[in-house]
Design brief:
This protein is of the alpha+beta class. It contains six helices and 15 strands. Helix 1 packs parallel to helix 5. It binds flavin-adenine dinucleotide and iron/sulfur cluster (SF4).
Length: about 375
């Protein structure tokens, strides 16, 4: 009996990993790829701003027992920010179509060669990855903030950081950021004017409102829903389901039945809950699964499959070990000599190199960035 597959591939999670995979796989199998994302879609203008809406802009499913303020305990919210608290680490991650791209700080930075030491697998060395960095940079539209004499494009904090770097004997340069300033690199579209990007999604030339980390309401950030996912959905007919929570992955046997003893050669059944429909359980058969639910979501889902449902019993015991948060430290300068006007311009604009790209020294390498 031949198995009737619903999809060639099911992708779980729509951040950077999930979006690129959805795009590539749906190009190969148009109309036969399903993307499952637990968060909401965010059309232009839909990100929360009022105190009332902001207070509920968190991810909270009562059964997941997040540490929430008292008045939100027990209230189900499908908001943008998922705050996780662990013994030695707290994390802020995103839930929404586009994953972390909806709240990240837009910076497109390639690691220096020295980062890729012998601990990295051969297929993840810099020379192997280089062509893909180039493609991602192009699709995400990474570029520095436009430099011209238009007064509204002047960002005081950028200049202050550059002056500070110079005085401190370091190099500061404008960073590539994934922000839309129009399709013509050399002649930016006037601030606030809308046009279609080269994938067909409408974007607004950045209005310098400095709200990049709480969701860009003018769609000026080049978030994944406006490029990779837009192409996947509109050109290659990928099926995108939002507010659905992947729950379980089970290998199937030659007759299409769930069978945890199988190794995936016949594919899988993926189970999810539809959060828009009273957590109704749904499932589909697929030849392959991409688990791209972010560091925490991926580990959590696979651990459940290994230890709770026992549907993927052979996953390594190393799962969930030896990872860290990213290396960011956030600090504030108060009582500076000059006003920095921090509430103007994309969140990060420049970087000052401290032994990361020049004179690499692992013991003290970092990059100093501004933030609005
Ligand atoms: C405030 C902030 C600023 C940052 N700034 C930068 C920056 O400037 N430059 C940079 O390179 N990086 C930055 N990062 C880091 C970057 O955003 C992440 O590294 C990146 O988003 C990780 O991509 P990912 O695909 O692994 O996962 P994510 O982007 O986290 O996507 C995972 C997706 O899976 C979904 N999901 C999880 N579990 C399930 C489930 N069970 N079912 C269905 N869906 C599920 C989640 O809702 C999410 O949408 C920043 C991060 C933050 C939080
Ligand atoms: S500054 Fe950030 S939030 Fe504001 S329009 Fe530009 S990209 Fe969007």
């Amino acid at each position: 009996m031949s198995i009737q597959y619903d999809y060639e591939a099911i992708v779980i999670g729509s951040g950077f990993g999930g979006s690129i995979n959805t795009c590539r796989l749906s190009k190969k199998w148009p109309g036969q790829v399903l993307l499952l994302e637990r968060g909401k879609r965010y059309p232009m203008g839909s990100f929360a701003r009022s105190p009332h809406d902001m207070a509920r802009n968190f991810w909270n499913l009562p059964q997941e027992k997040r540490d929430m303020p008292d008045k939100l305990q027990g209230e189900e919210c499908h908001g943008l920010f998922d705050i996780r608290n662990f013994d030695h680490m707290d994390a802020v991650i995103s839930a929404g179509l586009g994953g972390g791209s909806l709240i990240y700080a837009n910076v497109f930075l390639q690691p220096p060669d020295e980062v890729f030491d012998s601990n990295w697998p051969a297929n993840a060395q810099k020379d192997v990855l280089q062509p893909y960095y180039a493609i991602a940079k192009q699709v995400l539209g990474a570029r520095p903030i436009p430099q011209n004499n238009e007064p509204r494009r002047k960002i005081i904090r950028t200049e202050l950081f550059q002056n500070f770097a110079k005085a401190d004997g370091h190099d500061s340069k404008l960073l590539d950021i994934n922000v839309f300033f129009g399709n013509d690199f050399d002649n930016p579209t006037p601030i606030g004017v809308q046009e279609k990007n080269r994938y067909g999604a409408v974007q607004t030339s950045c209005v310098y409102c400095a709200e990049c980390d709480v969701g860009c309401n003018t769609h000026s950030k080049n978030t994944l829903d406006l490029n990779y996912l837009h192409v996947a959905e509109h050109r290659y007919q990928a099926h995108i389901h939002t507010q659905v929570l992947a729950q379980k992955i089970v290998p199937i046997d030659a007759s299409g039945q769930d069978n945890p003893a199988m190794n995936g050669e016949f594919g899988y059944r993926v189970y999810w809950q539809d959060l828009k429909d009273a957590h109704k359980e749904c499932s589909a058969l697929t030849r392959r699964v991409v688990v791209s639910a972010g560091t925490l979501g991926t580990n959590e889902l696979l651990m459940r499959c290994r230890d709770l449902h026992k549907t993927l019993p052979n996953i390594s015991q190393q799962l969930g070990r030896h990872f860290s948060g990213n290396g960011d430290f956030l600090s504030f300068v108060i009582e500076g000599d000059k006003p920095a006007d921090p509430n103007y311009g994309p969140v990060i604009t420049q970087g000052t190199d401290y032994n990361l790209f020049k004179n690499f020294d692992r013991s003290k390498a970092f990059i100093l960035e501004d933030a609005s």
